Amino acid sequence: MERGGLLGRHSDLHLKADDLARSLAFPGPIRLAEAHLGLAAELLELCQSIGRDDFTVEHLGVTWRGRRDRLVVDGIWYRLRRLPDAPPRLDALPSPLPRHVQAMLMSERLQPGGLVYVTGAAGAGKTTTASAMVVSRLARFGGIAYTIEDPPEMPLNGWHGDGYCSQTTVAGDSSADWMESFRGALRSQPAATHQMLFVGEIRNRESAQLMLRAASNGFLVVATGFGTDIVSALDSLAKLAGAEHQAMLGNMVRLVIHQRLRDGRLEARALASPSASGPVAARIRGGQFVHLVGDIQQQEALMIRNISPLEVQDHAA
């Protein structure tokens, strides 16, 4: 086993900055083996040199997503999760999505742009699903994708079939840094090319508004967010974007996915809005989020009959 593999065989490492011998490895927790403390010291030094709370770091061929935790009573810890070596694909997820959800994520109806919002609780695999969608659509349809992440969590940069992904790390933690990253993507639109924008997480009002602007400019925006269900996730996003942008949100939403892991199996529900003229769009514009429950149920009935809600030509009620 190569030196990097000694640490890389773990899914997670929690390194205690002032006492590496008390560090933890996962699955576990277990104590980090004494024979691995030298490698852990190298990795810790790299983490400390970055100087940010959220970051990615590569050590001996293994890439880790990191978080500097400064609120623990016994000092600073660095929480690291090993990132996969290869980009995810929708048809090869460790726990597959329901077939009808996969089909909608890959629908050609999404090519003109709009917003796909992947929601769920922490640890539900939102980023994996969103990243797999970007990679799979690039491989099938070509075009270019930009990402805005803090930090990047999947190895997306490069060619996927005839499509290319340009992965971006946000320069800092402030709203201004996020806004500049959005503006950079908006200024980078090539002519006559299918374009996607993957936003790792919508963190503030400015980002939510710029995301909607990108969708209105022809990007297929793929974003992740938290929510206990589809309705609460959309309601929270509307509040974050602000009342003055609620109409744009209604016009731009094309697909909302809510997923959760239960006993290691991925479960997902979906709400499609094929166009700005449909009833789902009208309800979002009007802030009638509670009424979306009925739309979700109606669409699930369609999917039982193998009819994709994204392919249905709808008109506002």
Automatic annotation (TrEMBL):
<dbReference type="GO" id="GO:0016887">
    <property type="term" value="F:ATP hydrolysis activity"/>
</dbReference>
<dbReference type="GO" id="GO:0005886">
    <property type="term" value="C:plasma membrane"/>
</dbReference>
<protein>
    <submittedName>
        <fullName>Twitching motility protein PilT</fullName>
    </submittedName>
</protein>
<keyword id="KW-0067">ATP-binding</keyword>
<dbReference type="InterPro" id="IPR001482">
    <property type="entry name" value="T2SS/T4SS_dom"/>
</dbReference>
<dbReference type="GO" id="GO:0005524">
    <property type="term" value="F:ATP binding"/>
</dbReference>
<dbReference type="Pfam" id="PF00437">
    <property type="entry name" value="T2SSE"/>
</dbReference>
<feature type="domain" description="Bacterial type II secretion system protein E">
    <location>
        <begin position="109"/>
        <end position="262"/>
    </location>
</feature>
<keyword id="KW-0547">Nucleotide-binding</keyword>
<dbReference type="InterPro" id="IPR027417">
    <property type="entry name" value="P-loop_NTPase"/>
</dbReference>
<comment type="similarity">
    <text>Belongs to the GSP E family.</text>
</comment>
